[in-house]
């Protein structure tokens, strides 16, 4: 029996025991949540952020980083408020569902879905590349590394929330320790003027450095916005751990904000010191492994393999944390009926969303394998490391626009909603998030490489919307997220 509501959707009454089969265990505190947020992001500080400096220079990247930092501060403080008020696993989908109805929630959920599934795939690809270099294996062996990585880290995530968070804390601290060793090692060798400012107008290399702060002007700085995103991408996943946190109303805001502050300090140190040692910003702009190149410049090539193995820690931290994210994201959307409900069944003892974890992993791995074998190793690697990466960033930007709008609408729609934490930036911070996200999208669309990724996201969306329009919208369930939205944001009444 379906009960129709507005927006062309209807809710079905589910069988007894539906929610008992979809339960999660509470484990995480502030420290675990901090580690999850930092771990999800940290690989982006090992590589990716540096690729725009060839024309815009260090100064352009610095300006872009400051702008993107403002965007993420507005975003993280906004979601800290919304997550404390709506402590459900749905995260961004949950916020948008309450603010913009079922269709708004679903579209926002799709944005995060493409972001997390493909970000994990791209990070897995980089893990394979590093391991291939360390063990000197042929290119045809790359898919074996991918399959092995998914098996190991899906297994860790499925092994129980306690095991998953313990590993998250360990690998995040290890990745930060790697960065700390790099900062300390680089400091005596740093010559900011000579190396960081060695990009001239037109993208020329200045052998003696001391070039202009903005060699391509303000436009060159704005063009680097999509690259600066990698310094913070995925910190927004923390609300997905709400139902596995002991006291989410208190701990989620603290974990999100502490994580963001940690990443700001780390990002600025990486940007400064990685660019201030030989061979400088010009060479760094072409590097796929800037931290590793920095270690090589300091210690020489003899330690390259050891340093590469250490650098893998940053990639592993993000891979593990993002698998956690898409497992919970798929779980929450399927528990509410937006995705097939079978995807939300949890393990009977461990209470981990095993089906969602496996499904998301198979989707990401399948995309990688299809691209690799259809295009060949060389072209396939370029597409995985380029187009899929750009699809993930584009999905993230769209979700940031939706989350900023959700915050503004919720302040107006549910002014009396209990808010255990309130953003210090308020509506203004959320509005800045929306504006900067839209500007970043504009500069993504100016880049032909990014435009290819946009087409991929459009296909992903078309398939998702077709399913929801034909099937999902008629099979919604009064999950905690849905109940909260329908009850006017006052209380999340029990649904089972």
UniProtKB/TrEMBL annotation:
Q: How does it sit in the membrane?
A: Multi-pass membrane protein
As recorded in UniProt, coiled-coil segments are none
The main location is membrane
Cite the entry's keywords alphabetically.
Answer: Cell membrane, Membrane, Transmembrane, Transmembrane helix
| KW NADP (keyword) present | no
- Give compartment(s): Cell membrane
TM spans, by residue?
27-46, 58-80, 114-132, 144-162, 169-187, 213-235, 256-277, 297-326, 355-375, 381-402, 423-443, 449-470
Q: Which PANTHER family match?
A: AMINO ACID TRANSPORTER-RELATED, MEMBRANE PROTEIN
Q: Spell out the protein name for this chain.
A: Amino acid permease
């Amino acid at each position: 029996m379906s009960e129709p509501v507005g927006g062309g959707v209807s809710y079905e009454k589910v069988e007894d025991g539906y929610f008992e089969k979809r339960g999660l265990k509470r484990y995480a505190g502030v420290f675990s949540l901090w580690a999850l947020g930092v771990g999800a992001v940290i690989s982006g500080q090992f590589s990716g952020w540096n690729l725009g400096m060839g024309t815009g220079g260090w100064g352009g990247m610095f300006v872009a980083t400051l702008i993107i930092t403002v965007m993420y501060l507005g975003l993280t403080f906004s979601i800290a408020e919304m997550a404390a008020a709506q402590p459900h696993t749905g995260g961004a989908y949950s916020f948008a569902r309450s603010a913009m109805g079922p269709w708004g929630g679903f579209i926002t959920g799709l944005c995060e879905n493409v972001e997390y599934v493909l970000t994990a795939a791209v990070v897995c690809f980089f893990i394979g590349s590093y391991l291939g270099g360390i063990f000197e294996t042929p290119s045809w062996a790359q898919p074996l590394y991918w399959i092995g990585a998914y098996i190991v880290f899906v297994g860790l995530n499925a092994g129980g929330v306690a095991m998953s968070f313990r590993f998250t804390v360990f690998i995040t601290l290890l990745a930060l320790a790697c960065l700390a060793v790099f900062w300390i090692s680089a400091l005596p060798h740093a010559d900011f003027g000579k190396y960081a400012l060695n990009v001239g107008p037109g993208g020329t290399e200045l052998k003696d450095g001391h070039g202009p702060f903005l060699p391509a002007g303000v436009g060159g700085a704005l063009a680097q916005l999509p690259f600066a995103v990698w310094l913070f991408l995925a910190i927004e996943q923390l609300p997905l751990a709400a139902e596995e946190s002991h006291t989410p109303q208190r701990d989620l805001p603290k974990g999100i904000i502490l994580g963001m502050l940690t990443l700001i300090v780390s990002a600025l140190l990486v940007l400064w010191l990685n660019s201030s040692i030989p061979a400088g910003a010009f060479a760094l702009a072409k590097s796929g492994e800037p931290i590793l190149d920095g270690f090589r410049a300091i210690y020489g090539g003899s330690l390259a393999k050891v340093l590469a193995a250490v650098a893998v820690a940053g990639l592993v931290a993000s891979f593990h944390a993002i698998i956690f994210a898409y497992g919970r994201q798929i779980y929450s959307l399927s528990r509410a009926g937006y995705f097939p409900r079978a995807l939300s069944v949890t393990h009977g003892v461990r209470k981990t969303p095993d089906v969602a974890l496996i499904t998301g992993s198979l989707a990401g791995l399948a995309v990688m394998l299809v691209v690799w074998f259809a295009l060949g190793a060389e072209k396939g690697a370029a597409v995985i490391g380029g187009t899929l990466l750009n699809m993930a960033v584009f999905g993230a930007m769209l979700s940031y626009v939706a989350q900023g709008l959700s915050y503004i609408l919720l302040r107006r729609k549910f002014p009396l909603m209990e808010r255990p934490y309130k953003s210090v930036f308020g509506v203004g911070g959320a509005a800045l998030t929306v504006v900067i996200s839209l500007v970043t999208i504009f500069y993504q669309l100016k880049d032909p490489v990014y435009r290819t990724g946009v087409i991929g996201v459009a296909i992903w969306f078309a398939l998702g919307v077709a399913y929801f329009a034909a099937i999902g919208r008629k099979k919604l369930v009064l999950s905690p997220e849905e109940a909260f939205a329908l009850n006017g944001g006052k209380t999340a009444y029990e649904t089972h």
